[in-house]
Records
---
Amino acid sequence: MDVKKQEVGHEEIFEEVNRTKTHQGHENLYESSSTGVKGLDKLLGGGFPKGSVVLLAGSSGSGKTIFSFQWLFEGVKNGENGIYITVTEPLFKTLKNLEVMNFYDRNAIEREKLKIIDIREIYEDEGFNLERIINFIEEQVRQNNARRLCIDSITAIAYNLDNKAKIRKFIFELGKVIATLGCTTVLTSEVVDRDRYSVYNVEEFISDAIIKLAQIRIGDELQRVMRIVKIRGRGCRSDDLYFKISGQGIRVFPKLDISLNYKSSTERVSTGNEALDDLLSGGIFRGSSTLIAGPTGTGKSLLSMQFIIEGLERGEPCLYAGFEESRDQLIRNAKGFGWDLEKYEKNGLLTLRCVYPREKHIEEHLADMGHIVEGRKINRCVIDSLSAIENSFPEENFTDFVIRVNGYLKMQNVTTFFTSAATSLIGSRRLTENHISTIADNIIMLKHVEMQGELGLVINIIKARGSSHSKRLIEYRITDKGIAIGQCLYGYEGIIGGMTRKTGDTVEDKLESEFEKFIGSETESVFPSLKSEGFSKENIFACIDKLIKKEILKKNNGIELKEDVKKIMR
Amino acid sequence: MVNVKKLLRDIVEKYPSSAVVMMELPTESYFDVNIATVKFLIDREFEGIYISFHRPFKNILSLFEQHRIDTNKLFFIDTATALSKGTGEENPRCIYISKSVDIDELIGAIYITLPKLKGRGRFIFIDSITTIAIYKPLSESMRFSEFLIRIVRKNEVENVIFNVARDLVQKKFIRDIALRVDKVISVAE
């Protein structure tokens, strides 16, 4: 056979197919055939262009048949009859896999709104006759007034043809007929190779759109990915989209869109801790991201919770995305500090999303959070903790997650606290790992320190982007009202490294001598109780006021003492 | 009532090797047509399997005997007894199917019974196919249909005859898709 001549002939057919399609598809240019696949229609610009031919390529088990049926049943829901033609397996086997899906509609099949056909019978009876097959498909579409057609698979039909020229002829003929029918058609293509979309290299030429389904190995898991290779007349993103098959059918998780076009607010919001706000020159910027880093037991979650409570009390919708603790545990812990999270959950201001990282794919977490943020118009968010996510996913996925979630939340003007656990209890951990430190606008470090034979806690603001902030190392305590920030650690060194040494007068020493200057020996009785309450400015001032009231201290001296305290505490 | 005998004669003559026949029946003459069909086939020296979802074996046996049908030419697969929570008396000519209407159990019963059919022709009569659909998912009903079509195509039986109600909405699906019927006998009210 003169294959070359035959191929020239097909080029002509190909052009004719396109001409027919252009003419036919004109009025349908902007109409879409909704796929019924959650997350996909938006990416496709509403669905498949009506009247188009879609090549759905993928290996065995990649989800082609489920995708096809989801699209067909979606059509029935929208009043569009469909036809499913199988070539590869008996219909009862195909149906068995679908009956567990919630989009499956038995009634639609039995009433032939969705007609299922095993085409093998035709060539069992009459032998494989190319023309007969095409005529049969055409008749079925016309008789059933079908607006959606799926041939599963084009590869299996072509396999019955004994040479490439016949295959090309069949595919081009089929394309021509389908184009004239005006119904949207999905042709499935069985390909194993990731970079190919068809077995015979011609299927893509009759297709207006190509969707590739695949499974890729990430770590020790296989993940499903979908790629929109082309969609004629519409722009589309061509990166891999993670998707999942469940009882709900296929759900695509589009990547959260981020760009550097977001606005930067100059509004300051409170962290929920007045003393910390002071250290940050009046709080953090709205829409900024703050990393709270520190080892276990330093109060990262607590500080984050204070931040959320502050937002809730101001009536701001908040999201607490916990990856380590259950909802009940968070509620119980918060109750211990006098905060009623359930109350805010009930009135819709607070969303507690508690899921182990491994329970979902990283894209699914992002999609869920995006859904909550946009659906509930979230103002404040806590992600607790990044370490849990880091421990559950490969490094590149984790870094990608942090970049995208951070970028997304900034675009949405959500003020966010991320917590991250340090690996060592005492001392410092490299914050530059996974680039978290460069991504976050603010970094607050919490640390255990050994000091005068005791284990203390120290807070330190490492950075506050676009704002002046205290550089001091400040002692803090975890109280029944949350984190209470205390005195600055003057007179010590080696705190960051965890080996604290006293090198001079500490704040405590300075305060004690200041009190002695004004109240003399009374200091011995007053100072220990002040120490037990914590050397916060508020506590000291309250103590001075009491001394004035008890006439231990003259009013003028009290004012002078307060000024001196301010200088010490600065 | 339509002349069922004539229609059946035509089918037997037109499809001497094998045929899948659907009978669309009105409620009033439902069982009368069933009896007439079975009687016609037995009288033509066919032997067959009667699969009943509606009436227990004991009841059918008595009705057939009343109509002078030679029940020695018939084997029964009875799902009706279990479905009505009854227990059937043991009889070498009857296999009782459990109430779960398990398709594998049904197929197994047909396989066991097929070699026992010794007549000039063999048939399977199903009363009625729609009952399976009530109890089983579509995939299972279609698997059973696929099995029936296969034994017809392999000439293990000459005729598979089943009845459906006239007003059944799924009858087109059963006719064209599920059982790919060769001939329809439609009985008007």
---
Amino acid sequence: MADRKGRHDRATRRLWAALALPGTFWLIALFLVPFYAVMAVAFSGSINIFGEPNPAWNPLDWQFTTFNNVISESVSGAYREVWIRTGLYSVVALLICVVVGYPVAYYTARLAGKRRGLVLALILAPWWINYITRMLAWVNLLQDDGYVNKALGVFGIAPVSWLSGNAYTVVIALAYGYLPFFIIPLYASLDRIDPRLLEASRDLGVGPVRTFVRVTLPLSKMGLITALVITALPMAGDYYTNTIVSGSPNTNMIGNQIELFLLQGPLKNFGASLVLLLSLVLMFFMAYYLILTQRASRDAR
Amino acid sequence: MTATGAPSRAAAGPGRVTKRVPPWRNPWRRPYVLGAITWLYILWSLVPVLIAVQFSFNGGRSRSTWQGFSTQWYCCAEGSVGEDPSLLLALENSLILGAVTVLVATPLGVMLALGLTRWRSRSSQVANGIALVPLVTPEIVLGSALYLVMVNLYQFVPLGRPAMLLGHVTFSVSYVLVIVRSRLLSIGRDYEEAARDLGASPLQAIRTILLPLLMPSVFASAMIVFATSLDDFVVSQFLFGDASNITVPIKLYTAVRASPTPALNALATLLLVGSFLALVLAYVGLRARRRGTRSALDDLADYG
């Protein structure tokens, strides 16, 4: 057995490496190198005739003036408010995700019974509906003469101008947009809990609430953290939700600032510095998530 | 959910316990509250989209007042999807980009999955880590990094369709890798080793044994890549260059606050139909691969 395995390994190892090569090369050229390009632009020391930064490809040429400038503006300056707003909107939207998403995931995984397939399909559906389309749908409803204001009118509530730079519209839109991405990983983890554990708790006379707090919640902790990380990462860099449902600089998040610098002006080194800073902030979450998935895939082998 | 159902359930449940404990202590009580929250959430998440689809069939120009049924915004009123060149162009660009992304990303990802799963060494561990990072990278970081590298270093790749293709393949490869690898791990190594013992060359073993076994997951990942490429907004927006390369999500984004007619809803509906078809096919593919043990919906849920 060992001999046969050894023979095969020797003969095929080169083949496996060769198969992995093109994809690995692709990811190096189009993932690692681009990230280096962000650093080269952020640490650029000179500008060209259009006022755009010349990328500094050689680390010896790196100048940190812009980057330091961006950091100090972020700590106590023009971007401070934008960062705080980004954090605040994300935290509130994530809280809504937990309050709405946990019951939904729990019900689907444990209690939906015969209708489980249907409920799961309906919960998966928004995941595959284009994000911009889902926002477009809300823009229709939230028009000044849209269905939402008409519905409020029935109860005698004056029409609200939802789409003109309201913080709460942005937060609710973020929660609405990212809830499907939150629910599914949580559902997967709740689904994996052995029902016998809950039955044991029940048989020992523990009520539903304490069973939930003592058994289900601790067992789904990892799933909850995964769901929060998966949702928080794109949410922190979101700019399109904001543009679509608000469009006002009063609700700008850090993503809007990045998009503004990179795509709508010459100050690409400022944009690149903000991308670096955002990546640094999110790096912790990304690394955490990667370690978790690596561990899970090792267990699966 | 009616009151008349209650006695029969109490009788069917484990007997008298239900009568002694108050309802909040009764573990066999039907989960009315959680059920209501779930169904309300489903309504909240889907009804707005259904209303948007409904307005794509509106008889008038309004996107907030229903004026009768008509298919004029698909074809052939002035400004409809069939008549407005910019909307048609967006649709065409999206479909071509999605198809080419599938053709490039699927083989690349399958090869990567085969290589990284079976080839065990320190460098494969590193490559494995790199391959998963795009899945957790916020799109704005990936989009801006690709934009800066195309503009500053890979100047031979013009912004537009070529740059968008490279970008879409980059995030799609990781999807293919994850889906195909989970199938590879569940197949195990026995079949290919048997083939090798019977005299097959390594390549023959892959071609005649592994690939047919992997086919359903390859197909499913191709469909998921197509749907993801159709839906992508951020990477496309950073790389599309000028209006001639606009895709459907970019068109929706730029037009949503500018010139709202139901034609925009019609365009969104067509995008919805496109990715829905791709996913139904992916679902069928995943179902073909597992009979009974777990529902294919659970698999789809895992691939996020």
